[in-house]
Automatic annotation (TrEMBL):
Name of the protein this chain belongs to: Uncharacterized protein
Domain of life: Bacteria
Keyword Signal: yes
Transmembrane segments: 50-70, 82-105
Annotated organism of origin: Alkalicoccobacillus porphyridii
Signal sequence annotation: 1-19
Entry keywords, A to Z: Membrane, Signal, Transmembrane, Transmembrane helix
Length: 116
């Protein structure tokens, strides 16, 4: 059971962190790609570029969903288990959109009008 709990929280964390990182890289503002992954900057909420603000909201949302889903499965309540499965699916969908589709659209220049 302990291994299952550790595996579940690891998977949920990977989804949320990877998706948030992909979002920050896809919509990275003028400061450049990996510099956007600066935890201290986001925790202090000194975000000025619009991508930083979206990143903040998305990061907190996905981590909260992952944490709640983990505890829902852990407590083994029927309705919470169902909700946990739904939240896991939601995080997977969000990961797919922000981690795969948005960066591809950014590569082909779809979002260039936002920075002008």
């Amino acid at each position: 059971m302990l291994l299952l709990k550790i595996l579940l929280i690891f998977i949920m964390s990977c989804f949320s962190i990877q998706a948030a990182t992909a979002l920050g890289l896809a919509f990275g503002g003028p400061s450049g790609s990996w510099q956007r992954w600066n935890i201290e900057r986001y925790w202090t909420k000194n975000a000025t570029h619009w991508a930083d603000k979206v990143f903040n909201v998305y990061f907190y949302l996905t981590m909260s969903l992952a944490y709640f889903s983990y505890h829902a499965v852990y407590k083994k309540y029927g309705y919470l288990r169902t909700l946990a499965i739904f939240l896991f699916a939601l995080i997977t969908i969000i990961f797919t959109v922000f981690g795969i589709i948005f960066p591809f659209l950014d590569i082909i220049g779809f979002f260039d009008f936002l920075d002008s």
